[in-house]
Amino acid sequence: MYNNIKAKDIMTTRLVTLKPTDDIYHGIHALLTGKISGAPVVDDNGTFLGVFNEKSCMDVVIGDQYHGVSNHQVSHLMFTDVKTVGPETAMVDIALMFRNEPLRRLPVLENGKLVGLISRRDILLAVEDTVKKMGVPRKLKSVVPIPYYSALIDPHDNSSNQA
Description:
The chain has helices at 7-10, 24-34, 54-67, 74-77, 91-100, 120-134, 149-152; strands spanning 38-42, 48-53, 105-110, 113-119. β1 and β2 form a beta hairpin. It is of the alpha+beta class. The protein is globular and about 55 Å long. It has one domain (7-137): CBS-domain (Roll).
């Protein structure tokens, strides 16, 4: 069912991107104002170079505190060993990557150029859209939770321990 949905069908194309020469504080500001946890870093030709994210920013705090390195560029703190997918990658394969690895986003590249980005939320939105198109009702029958057995036993009640 989801194998027919490709990365190009669900990727976000309006992206906040950074340049490798951008100041790290500009990068932090871009993440905060964009309300995003990471941004792709691209050169002037749109070639994907890496990702600057919230984890990168932790190095800013540590570096400033211990080494006074507040004048670095994004390129010094971006992650370059980043998993990527192509536009034709099946959504189910992307979901497997998200499940099996601690990824939040996957850049979508075509010939080394950034063409989009897929997040875990994009996968969920595609699932919801597919379910709507299939006419599956959203509201499911509520399930009564089964209490834990230990919650049913009073640990202070010694009546069952008497011989």
